């Protein structure tokens, strides 16, 4: 071995010793600064020095970092889509509320026979968009709840809900409400007199898709409020929209039922009309139950709202 090779080998040995010494010193220093930025920088520097001597470890760290970045981009895209859906639903809700108010108060007619509305074009299309936007919102909200830390599985949800009478009452009201929507769809398709068929189709899908949502919300804790935590704000915004929607549906169904009852002559009150009126009342009752539940969930996020005395949920 020549003199130059000996000098190069000695330099490499000194570099390795220096690297090991640096790692040891940095790890010791980090113990005296727990929980602050200095400690974090020390740990990052120590990991960098270790990774320089271990290429395989560096590759695995890069893979984990790439996976975290990909997951962050995916979550960001989902948040953007969800916010767009919420804004679309909110805008269509405002326009739809104006349409309902005009028909019932100004035109003194039902939604189907309201023909003098001129504030904006295609109000029934906006009505359908309002109902359709609730379907993806409900799907994304349900999937998000199953990914939270306090979700304990469908077996726990079923075990909690099956012994609660209010759950079975809600399920019975859901059946009557779905029968009401199916009746409106079939009547509209057969008689061609109901232009709101698309609305009732989307409403039927919304009822089926969103039914597991109150059951999951009842068995999971609400996310904690932290600064700049988008999950908490989206959770709160979703509950506010659900409260507003079901309150509006309750009032609208009640007014439509009262209007229909007042405008039916005694000679035309056949069995089909009376059954449809009873189903409309059941639909209003179903919306009223959901309205109460989401309102209480907005303020009592850690409570079992289907219980009698609202006991606190157990920690997962």
Write up this protein.
The chain is an all-alpha fold and 316 residues long. The chain folds into 2 domains: 3-53; 78-299, no CATH class. It has 10 helices and no strands. It has helices at 3-31, 37-53, 55-106, 123-146, 154-161, 165-191, 197-210, 212-218, 230-263, 271-299. Helix 1 runs antiparallel to helix 2 (37-53), helix 6 runs antiparallel to helix 7 (197-210) and helix 6 crosses helix 10 (271-299). The N and C termini lie far apart (66 Å). The relative contact order is 0.08. Residues 5-9, 14-19 and 29-42 have low confidence and may be disordered.
How much of the residues is beta strand, in percent? Answer: under 5%
Please indicate the count of domains.
Answer: 2
Q: What is the N-to-C succession of helices and strands?
A: HHHHHHHHHH
Shape: globular
Number of strands: 0
Q: What is the structural class?
A: mainly alpha
Largest sheet: none
Low-confidence stretches: 5-9, 14-19, 29-42
Euclidean distance between termini CA atoms:
66 Å
Q: How many helices does DSSP assign? A: 10
Write the layout of secondary structure elements.
Elements: H1 3-31, H2 37-53, H3 55-106, H4 123-146, H5 154-161, H6 165-191, H7 197-210, H8 212-218, H9 230-263, H10 271-299
What is shown here, in short?
The protein is mainly α and 316 residues long. 76% of the residues lie in helices and 0% in strands.
Features:
0% strand; 2 domains; 10 helices; globular; mainly alpha; 316 residues
